[in-house]
Write a structure and sequence with these properties.
seven-stranded mixed β-sheet; four-stranded parallel β-sheet; ATP binding; 18% strand; alpha/beta; metal-binding
């Protein structure tokens, strides 16, 4: 017979994402509503190994839902990638009476959650990443806020780009995924969108497009460049030399991770946090919470990590059509 869950732990791991605090708050309050205790693990897996563990009450998460970042802090942890580190993490959980763990993070964090589960700790993952690169889910905590932050910044760059009749290369985050770049490219009306999944590194096409657009009377040219391609500054120098058009690079960087989360990130993160507690109360383990076809759902972590996510070609085609 499965052991009854009495104490749930929660941690955030990897890069921070707006909405993580909403998820933490939902885990804490949903668990307490079911008569469970909750412990917060600070600084991710690194904090777990160092036993940086605190008790959390409903009041401890008051006034956190509107805050960006994570109140539990986050860190990378090379030691937790080792068998010894994983086994010690499970022992720390048992020492502190943690029967189930909610891990909020990306695919690297899920790999750690998978190992904890293999060592006997019931573990549920929540997709917390601005990159939208978790294949099993159509939504990840933080993407909506990050893409809106980037969109607003690009609107501002466009204003000055138009005033100076420039070409602007604007680099957005996303690691090796192009979702932020694609969404911003469509939302901001970019002339070119460079995605890691589709870019062929033929700069001559960009140069030809800039020149052709100038001949058609366009006063500016916006290129959205994904982080996975990068090198925006050197690209700007080459394009300016080839076209004679003043070209500037703007790298938006970590501003996209911060800020008060949008309504969607607050609500969806809250639903996912509550769902994770429900799964643990059902003695489920090695699961990832996702969102598909308008419903919250869950997947086996092994299955989720094996999935591959691709950029929809139709979206890419529409973005090209709209950029003329």
């Amino acid at each position: 017979m499965a052991k009854e869950v009495k104490t749930i732990g929660v941690l955030t791991s990897g890069g921070d994402a707006p909405g993580m605090n909403a998820a933490i708050r939902a885990v804490v309050r949903s668990a307490i509503a079911k008569g469970l205790k909750v412990k917060g693990v600070q600084k991710g897996y690194n904090g777990l190994l160092n036993e940086e563990i605190i008790d959390l009450s409903a009041r401890d998460v008051s006034d956190t839902i509107a805050r960006g970042g994570t109140v539990l802090y986050t860190a990378r942890c090379a030691e937790f990638r080792t068998e010894e580190g994983q086994a010690r993490g499970a022992e720390v959980c048992r020492k502190h009476g943690i029967d189930g763990m909610v891990v909020i993070g990306g695919d690297g964090s899920f790999a750690g959650a998978q190992k904890l589960s293999h060592h006997g700790i019931n573990t549920i993952g929540l997709p917390g990443t601005i990159d939208l690169d978790i294949a099993c889910t159509e939504y990840t905590i933080g993407f909506d806020t990050a893409v809106n932050t980037a969109m607003e910044a690009i609107d501002k760059v466009r204003d000055t780009s138009t005033s100076h009749e420039r070409c602007s290369i604007i680099e957005v985050m996303g690691r090796n995924a192009g979702y932020i770049a694609l969404w911003c490219g469509i939302a901001n009306g970019a002339e070119d969108i460079l995605l890691p999944e589709t870019y062929d590194y033929d700069e001559q096409k960009l140069i030809n497009n800039i020149i052709a657009n100038r001949k058609r009377g366009k006063k500016h040219h916006i290129i959205i460049n994904a982080e996975g391609i990068g090198h925006s500054t050197s690209m700007a120098r080459r394009i300016e030399a080839a076209t004679g058009v003043e070209t500037r690079a703007t790298i938006l960087g970590h501003m996209q991770r911060g800020g008060s989360p949008t309504c969607k990130d607050r609500v969806y993160a809250s639903m996912m946090g509550a769902y994770a507690v429900d799964l643990l109360c059902q003695n489920k383990t090695n699961r990832v919470v996702g969102y598909r076809n308008g419903e919250f759902c869950d997947f086996d972590i092994d299955e989720a990590l094996a999935m591959k996510k691709v950029i929809p070609q139709y979206w890419v085609d529409v973005a090209k059509q709209l950029s003329i």
